[in-house]
């Protein structure tokens, strides 16, 4: 069952790309590189790596997605890596245990639940594209420890208006 939680601002290092549903690797495959980059510079990670969806246009198969790694304090980006801050606010959260391919059903149930509760997302829609203030998938399972995607733990965090 989804919950509503208040979350603070959270600094991170990220990389942002325009991708399709089949080209997530363009951002996702950079997470390990970002973690290494942070470690080389003496920065400490502060939680699960995530995907942040800035815009979603499923009919055109076009997404603007950011892969990010939370850090304990502000960092300065370099090259394709940039520093950012996830906004504070009220978020609907839900957890999923299983393959990331099963997330679409979990997301649909979260969206349905929120509509039934009369909640409004931090999201605008223009010309069929959803533009989100902060929509996250946090990947809590380290694939080096658990390579079986069916055993992964993923948290959803969608910011409310």
Write the layout of secondary structure elements.
Elements: E1 3-7, E2 10-19, H1 25-28, H2 31-40, E3 50-57, E4 62-70, E5 82-86, E6 89-97, H3 103-117, E7 123-126, E8 129-132, E9 135-139, E10 153-159
Antiparallel strand pairs: 1-6, 2-4, 2-5, 3-4, 3-8, 3-9, 6-10, 7-8, 9-10
Global outline: globular
Tally of extended strands?
10
State the end-to-end CA separation: 20 Å
CATH superfamily: Regulatory factor, effector binding domain
CATH topology name: Multidrug-efflux Transporter 1 Regulator Bmrr, Chain A
Structural class: alpha+beta
Low-confidence stretches: none
In CATH, the architecture is Alpha-Beta Barrel
Report the average pLDDT across residues: 96
The total number of structural domains is 1
Task: Please report which band the strand proportion falls in: under 5%, 5-15%, 15-25%, 25-35%, 35-45% or over 45%.
Answer: 35-45%
Q: Output the number of helix runs.
A: 3
C-alpha-based Rg, rounded: 15 Å
Q: How do the SSEs run, as a string of H and E? A: EEHHEEEEHEEEE
Structure overview:
- This protein is α+β, with helices and mostly antiparallel strands.
- The protein has one domain (3-159): Regulatory factor, effector binding domain (Multidrug-efflux Transporter 1 Regulator Bmrr, Chain A, Alpha-Beta Barrel), CATH 3.20.80.10.
- 18% of the residues lie in helices and 41% in strands.
- It has helices at residues 25-28, 31-40, 103-117, and strands at residues 3-7, 10-19, 50-57, 62-70, 82-86, 89-97, 123-126, 129-132, 135-139, 153-159.
- Strands 1, 2, 3, 4, 5, 6, 7, 8, 9 and 10 form a ten-stranded antiparallel β-sheet that branches.
- The two termini are 20 Å apart.
- The model has no long low-confidence stretch (mean pLDDT 96).
């Amino acid at each position: 069952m989804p919950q509503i939680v208040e979350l603070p601002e959270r600094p991170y290092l990220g990389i942002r790309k325009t991708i399709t549903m089949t080209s997530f690797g363009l951002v996702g495959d950079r997470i390990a590189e970002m973690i290494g980059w942070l470690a080389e510079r003496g920065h400490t990670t502060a939680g699960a790596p995530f995907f942040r969806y800035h815009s979603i246009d499923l009919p055109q198969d076009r997404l603007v997605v950011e892969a990010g790694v939370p850090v304990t304090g502000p960092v300065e980006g370099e090259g394709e890596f940039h520093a950012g801050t996830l906004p504070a606010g009220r978020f609907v959260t839900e957890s999923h245990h299983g393959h990331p391919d099963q997330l679409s059903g979990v997301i649909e149930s979260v969206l349905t639940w929120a509509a039934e509760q009369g909640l409004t997302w931090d999201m605008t829609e223009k010309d069929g594209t959803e533009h989100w203030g902060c929509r996250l998938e946090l990947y809590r399972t380290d694939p080096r420890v658990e390579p079986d995607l069916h055993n992964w733990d993923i948290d959803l965090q969608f910011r409310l208006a």
